[in-house]
Sequence to fold (362 residues):
Amino acid sequence: MRIDGTPFRSIWVDELDRWSVRIIDQTKLPWAVDLVRLTTMEEMAHAIKAMLVRGAPLIGASAAYGVALALRADASDASLANALAVLGGTRPTAINLRWALARMEKVLAPLPAAARVAAAYEEAAKICDEDVATNRAIGENGLPLIAERAKNGRRVNVLTHCNAGWIATVDWGTALAPIYMAHDSGIDVHVWVEETRPRNQGASLTAWELGKHGVPHTVIADNAGGHYMQHGEVDLVIVGTDRVTRSGDVCNKIGTYLKGLAARDNGVPFWVALPSSTIDWTISDGLSDIPIEERAATEVTTMTGRALDGSIATVRIVPTSSPAANPAFDVTPARLVTGLITERGLCDANEAALTAMFKDVA
Fold:
């Protein structure tokens, strides 16, 4: 995708030295586009844990390059095992992290140390290229859901939660990919962007990238989504996900479950876009089996933004005596999901449909 006309991926190998890894520091958006250079596995682990990079597909791609950086410093078995352990412990909920590390281990473990570095960079690049192709396919498969509602040139209103755009993946995005394709094809599509407290990924990230691409959008408070559904101003909901069970339960940013309930109550289609790497075939019950990351209370008690004088400031918004809890994700049961948008097509959110569509990997 593009930032002010310049094409970008969200992660890439530095063009000059051809071994360090560049990312866009998403904690600085939307106020600055900071292209960070990472040179060690430890720096990559910090970038994942501190959410300089975030979004399930991008977390997986970043971890793959983290392994490559580790092996460049030391290609031994011990170094590989340490990198897999450290990177694997950075974020517990997104299954793409575990998927990417398992793929890297499968390729690299049988190789002699001398062959591992080149193979690690090659495999990480493959993961990134495949992610781009996969998300493009998700966009193509989701596009008809928007196009069919654009009768006689009417505006189509899509509501999304959190950020599942190109900066949450290597490129294109998951939930936003159909929206970008609809916009680029001339469809009048408008996006309701929920702010997505507490980290405001909707207001800070989704709004930023939609704006850079020229897609009409409006930022709304998290609690306003149901109101707009009640008044017929939401044609469909499309969200991303960090993990999907084999039964179709969906784990996404905290607050997604409430949107699923509101959509069901108002007869609004609720679609979830995902690559197949986000499916966890080992579990069936999302509520009991998916680990929910509990993040720092300061994400709830403070907020960062641009002050009226133009400076960037972090302020406390909660009484100093009040504690805060911060579960980062919730689970939307399959019964509330209209369907899944995958790289292979549209799919019902149940085990039979998922297994039939992905029988070669299930």
In short: The domain at 140-357 is CATH 3.40.50.10470 (Rossmann fold).
